[in-house]
Amino acid sequence: MSATDVPAPAGPSSPSVTAASPAASAVTSSLSRARPAWTPALLVVIGTACLVAAVPVFRNGVVDHAFPSYVQNDPSYSVARWSAPWVGGAVALGGIGLLCWLLAVGQVRSLRRRPAPVAPGGPRIVDVSEPSGLAPRPTQAASEY
Fold first, then answer.
1. How confident is the model at residue 56 (pLDDT cuts 50, 70, 90)?
2. pLDDT over threshold 50, residue 84
């Protein structure tokens, strides 16, 4: 064994150095796979539920208190009290609902832009040496003009 030789790793199954990693191919296949068509519908349902739930949560966060007048012939007054956790929760629910709607619109647009499926047997090879149905190629004289 010379100084440039590297011993093979010990173990029952030693991977080949030139073979592609199965983990890398699994990542690319998971990135290129299509999303199911029902995903935008689910996002719309979740988004609508969040937006509908935001209304009563916000109404619970704003409470109007009425106080009687202490002096005779003076009108009573009311004070609106805002509860930050309730209002913050309503804003968060509204934001999640709008985000779900935006994601659903994006996925519907990507579903419509998806290319048509290829016919069985793969794409058809077209011979481009002689174009059919197109104008003839320009001759040498036409290109000098």
1. very high
2. yes
The pLDDT tens digits of the residues spanning 60-78 come to 999 888 888 888 888 888 8
Residue 51 in contact with residue 99, Cβ under 8 Å? no
Nearest to 63 by CA among 49, 81, 78, 45: 81
Element (H, E) at 56: helix 39-61
Question: Hey, CA dihedral for 82, 86, 90, 92, is it positive or negative?
Answer: positive
Cβ(65)–Cβ(78) under 8 Å?
yes
**Which residues does 134 contact at the CB level (< 8 Å), separation at least 6?**
none
The answer to whether the beta carbons of residues 62 and 42 sit under 8 Å apart is: no
Beta-carbon contacts of 81 under 8 Å, excluding residues fewer than 6 positions away, are 62, 63, 64, 65
How far is it between the farthest Cα atoms of the chain? 109
Q: How many angstroms separate the CA atoms of 93 and 80, rounded?
A: 22
User: Please, how many CA atoms are within 13 Å of residue 95, restricted to the half-sphere of its CB?
Assistant: 6
Distance between CA atoms of residues 140 and 117, nearest Å: 42
